[in-house]
Amino acid sequence: MFVEVGILHLLWVSSTHGLQQFACIGSGFTETPIEIREIGQEVEITTPGYPNAFNNTNLDCVWRIKPLHGLGLKLTLVDEHLDDGCDDNVLKVWDDSEVQGPLSHPGLKSSCGQGFHVNEIPVSFDTVSVSFQSKRNDGKVHFRLEVTAIDPTVCPEKEYSGCPSGPCCEGQDCCVVTAGSSKSFELSPPTYPNASAEGLKCTAKFVTTPGSQIAVNFLDMDIWNHGEPFCLSDYVLLAESSGSSTKSLLHEGMKFCGQQLPNYPGPSMIVSSGNELTVHYHTDGSVSQRGRGFKAAVVALNPVCSEMEFQYQYGEDVCKASCGSPYTPPEPKKCESVAITLTAIDSENKAPIPHAQVKISTKKMSMSESSSVEGTHNTDADGMITVSGTLNSTYQ
């Protein structure tokens, strides 16, 4: 099918399981990123009609590829012939992140018959951009660039940590919680499940690793609004940082009050767009009867790293569910010790040196080996020493 954005015409050649194929057939550019959500997901970008020749002129296309959930990217320029002229056909790849890396400004360029090679790209949490400009060609110009999602380089901790004094402590950022992915942080006013006190100003800031998100699962809500519809006196407020996406539901904050869970009667789960979320609980100074407040379970959410778990209560029924096929990190490589026999040789007559003292040091150690080779050893009557080491280490 054809997708038209502004004056750009992109041909989406096909989309099979795990593979999206794109080719440029017009001019202009697009600001819309291609989102990568799963390990192994592939995007293929080519010249029109690849591997056949194309007759289009004045091509100017940009693709913006955004890896989600902290995924890394592997870029492979499988095939390219762009040497019709140094300025006639140019393929560029760059990273929009401010973090220094292999694709930092000005990125990589293929032109003048010089291609580029880039293997695994460290996670950037930003958009990787690909552009292709073609003014003319000799009928032989073509390229095929493959982009594959690889394992995330960072995942949330399983256990939460921080905020030892609770969310109603005093001082800026006195309650900062590093959210866990397995064990949730139970958040509620200090007097819960009894009635809340007046004049509460409680704040909890939740953070997690870049590429992950914060999920607030409301389990109970009893914040009386005394008939006013806008939650002006007592409320719980969820807000993201000022740098969050303007498309986020929490960009300007969301207030909740009343005696029904948010999104009642459906599941009451609010998820941040970024890796930080702040929860405020406020009661005014009036001496009036109040409800018990709220109760929520807060976790770090990353479907690539761990299963997602949800809980919801409707009446007396409690519903629990989990989903997702998390990434399993590979087992670390193990170094197995082997017997290494060394012989001390006289440099002049090349004869073995019996009962000699030999000092051995490690120049290059394999993995995290604790070397028992290092130190002073005595040769036997045949001028030999047998020690335990690894094949991937270098000794002198």
What is the ordering of alpha helices and beta strands? EEEEEEEEEEEEEEEEEEEEEEEEEEEEEE
Widest sheet, order of strands:
1-2-3-5-12-7-10
Binned strand content = 35-45%
Number of strand segments: 30
Terminal residue distance: 64 Å
What's the tally of helices?
Answer: 0
| Helix-and-strand structural type | mainly beta
Overall residue-averaged pLDDT value: 80
Provide the helix percentage.
under 10%
Structural write-up:
By secondary structure, the chain is mainly beta. The protein is 0% helix and 42% strand. The protein is built from no helices and 30 strands. The chain has strands spanning 2-5, 8-16, 19-24, 33-36, 42-46, 59-67, 72-81, 89-95, 108-110, 120-121, 128-134, 142-150, 161-162, 176-178, 185-187, 201-207, 213-222, 235-239, 254-256, 269-271, 276-282, 293-301, 308-314, 317-323, 338-343, 357-360, 362-364, 375-378, 384-389, 394-395. The strands form eight sheets. The chain has a seven-stranded mixed beta sheet, with no helix packed on it. β1 and β2 form a beta hairpin. It is flat and about 100 Å long. The chain starts with a strand and ends with a strand. Residues 1-17 and 365-370 have low confidence and may be disordered.
